[in-house]
Amino acid sequence: MYRVAKNALFLYARTIVNTVVGIFTVQIMLEALGVDDYGLQAVAGVGTGLFTFLIQVLGTSTSRFLTFELGRGDEKRTNDTFCTTLILYIGLGILMAIIAETVGMWVLHNKLQVPDGRMHAAEFIIHISAISALVTLPQTPYSAVLNAHEKFNITASLSLFGTFYKLAILLLIVHSGFDHLILYTLLMFLLSVANMIFIRIYCRRYPECRFRPVFSRTLMRPILRFSAWELLGAISRTLKATLYPMFINIFHGVRLNVAIGIGSTLSGAVTGMAFTITSAFKPVITKLFAADRLSDMKDSVVLSTQLSMILYGIFAAPLLAMLDYVMTLWLHDVPPLALELCAIQLVINSVLLAYLIPAEGLKSMGRNKGTCTIEFIQMSIFSAILLTVLYLGMDPLIACAVYEAGTICSFILSILLVRRHLGGAFVRRLVNVAILRVLIAEGVIFLILFTISHLLPATFLTLVLVCTLSVILFGAASLFWILEPDRRESLRLLIRTRLQSIFPRPVRLPR
After folding, report:
1. 3-state SS of 286-337?
2. Which of the residues 10, 128, 169, 508 has an alpha carbon 20 to 30 A from that of 193?
3. CA distance 74 to 298
4. Residue 353: what are its φ and ψ, rounded to 5°?
């Protein structure tokens, strides 16, 4: 538990810093590149986005299978898995580079509108994208090894370095006499090369990273099958994020898109904080399943569900209680319906976290077919419902609420799926001990914070007080009710030990 908490802390630090610095980086990037080059970089570099999408899907699959083999303790099979996936990704990198240099260049010269005098810069971006495919795709197994060994301090540090590196080069480019777009693209590529070199040198300490010319079709088939279902889930999530604002735009224009975007940004920032618990627990759950320790695996799923929901509540409850003030403080002029849409998303996301980790537990067992199918069903049915409600001319707030309610449908189907694979007794424990207890605590604490926030003036000091009370109340609820008895005692012992290390008792000297 201590190791998972430490990993979660690294991931939290990364998320917070990247979010804060990213807000300023966008403005500086726009100033450094200019409007035309900023748009050109986004269009000509679309292939990089496709590489990133593909790497995320394949990386999830590779990480799961490498973690599973590490949990089994079979060093040779782990190395075979690593070598097989590395050869696969080298081949994919070569294929992507060829596509970028042929199809990408054809689209650039025949379909895209490029500002006068900037064709050479656009060609340079595509050439760099092709080379990046050769660098970043074969890097996937090495990154998966770091995740499998739970080296989140390394991955978080590299992510933070990349964030500050990007900020630094943008500040440099603003005062540079070179072509800003070409210089930015080149320096970002050098960052990818530096990451590749560092990770490969670091991973040499692990025996499974020793490359051998081994390509096992027996190992490759389940990885490709798993990746195919992950691809379906990723496409479903992408379509959901695309169709929702597109349908809203068709019937209600761009103003409602602004409200949705603002609500999603605020609620997504809070939800993203809680998602770090999922990343920290995934390798642990996979290793426990691989070692055939199903009882311990179920304990980890329950605990991680509790912790992620508690952490979400700590941030979401005060935000929801003082949402009007926070929105006004952030934007000054709040667009219509932005507050209501953000509130809906904050409430619905608490349901999302209730089934996210159990669903990830099924993926750790290699059974991602059902979870990815549920994502596809939710996207298809509720996109159709949203379109129908909008076509009938109903209130846009109702339409958005109905669409967001698809998460509840996914929750029910996912819990039924977990019951099928892990048993009814486990689901009853999960629902009663983890989900219901936290939801009840969230509701009660929100009412307390809401009451206090409306009894006091809407000031920044009140916001600080409400946030502090949220931490205290959720902490007390966890210590005395939410967590199971053995977890409560472990947490109390950990707190007592840490306090004694900070405030040691005075030693009495003999007379």
Report:
1. HHHHHCCCHHHHHHHHHHHHHHHHHHHHHHHHHHHHCHHHHHHHHHCCCCCC
2. 10
3. 23
4. -70, -20
Amino acid symbol at 89: Y
Tokens 């090894």 correspond to 145
pLDDT in tens, 416-448: 999 999 899 999 999 988 899 999 999 999 999
Round to whole Å and give the CA distance between 317 and 166. 34
Type of residue at 239: L
Task: Identify the CA nearest to 354 among candidates 284, 292, 294, 418.
Answer: 418
**Cβ neighbours, 10 Å, residue 261:** 15
Task: Look up the pTM and report it.
Answer: 0.80
| Coil, strand or helix at 54 | helix
Quote the Cα angle for 183-186-190, to 5°: 135
CA distances from 27 to 21, 33, 38, 331 (A): 11, 10, 11, 16
Selection from 90, 84, 94 nearest residue 212 by Cα: 84
Distance CA 233, CA 467 (A): 35
CB contact at 8 A, 208 and 79? yes
pLDDT in tens, 372-389: 999 999 989 988 998 898
- 464 burial type by CB count under 10 A (0-12 exposed, 13-18 middle, 19+ buried): exposed
Q: How far is CA 220 from the centre of its chain?
A: 26
